[in-house]
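Researcher: Here's a chain I'd like modeled. Treat it as a single chain, no partners, no ligands.
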Amino acid sequence: MEIKVLHCSDIHLDANYPEIWGKGGLKRQEQREVLTKIVERAGKERVDLLIMAGDLFTDRTVSTSTIEFIKSQLKSIDPIPVFITPGNHDPYTPESPYCYTDWPPNVHIFNTNRFKAEEIPDKKIIIYGAANKSDDDSYEALKNFSLRKKEGFHLIAFHGTYRELPQERADRDYISLATSEMNTCLPFDRADLERSAVHYIALGHQHDRLCIRGDESGHPAWYCGAPEYLSFSDREDKGVNLCHISASKTQVSFIPLWKRKYMRLIVPCTGMSTEQDILRTISKGTDEDLSRSVVRVELGDTYSLPFNINTDSIEEKLRDAFFGVKVHLLVETDTCLKNANSLQRLYREIVNEKISQSQLSERAYQEYALMLGIKALSF
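Model: Modeled as a single isolated chain. Structure tokens:
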């Protein structure tokens, strides 16, 4: 016997998009289209259940019409059961739409940060789910997990923070990292995974797709990632996981769904004489994929230029070149830390005495502000 599971997370309906000047409404409509694609795929694949592992919407900004849209979409695939585990952006609170509205009969919303078991008896499926009860729920739910019984297909679903992310993930750019990924919620570690002997662990919170346990002897644990690009920190293609689960094996395949990328364009400015030189260089490097994207232009090697860069002016002139654009000076902290002129010494002193004592999530912002100040003092 085999079951089929569709796993998605982090759709973030009705989120704000300040980096997309004048097009936030269009981006929110595209996110609705993403949900429609997921629901249609669940029906097409005739899955046994759909798991939505948190951050389905952004609680503080979600509209009544969006909640009604979600309900109508999920009802359209009845009798396929849908299991929702609220995340840090859509926590299960008394004020949440999860509480104050009626949901379709095929939708189950987990409502406690302790794991609860729900069964689909005719398929011999038991799914254990937990909800974030706030936007910073630090309860270690997986430490107290235990199987209800040994028979059947056992699944775990929740929106949580894996404390042992690979180093390349932990060191990502905190200026562009999505706020939702910087928060800690329902944290867990490798030992917790090893104790939970289930067929599949469906996770939400990380926006990039990542398998954190997938060896032959273990039980797969996956962040399926967001189904659409949401920030400049997003790297891999976006979509959902389709899982074929038997008693002895779990096969996980990826279904891409994304429509519009967030991309970073680094522009070395050495030798340029005017703002027009920068604009021409950007124009030469713009292809069709880039023009449809939300782009963060990073201007590097700007310290020796004979003119003062106005990022607002460049940004305004690039608005029609991309779907959305933000222009920044590239933060070159290594240069300031190594060299010895008076401004660079000032930079080192502030970094060592002030910024190094800050929270990791705040350091990149502070270093960026400091770099802009050093840049202003250099003219």
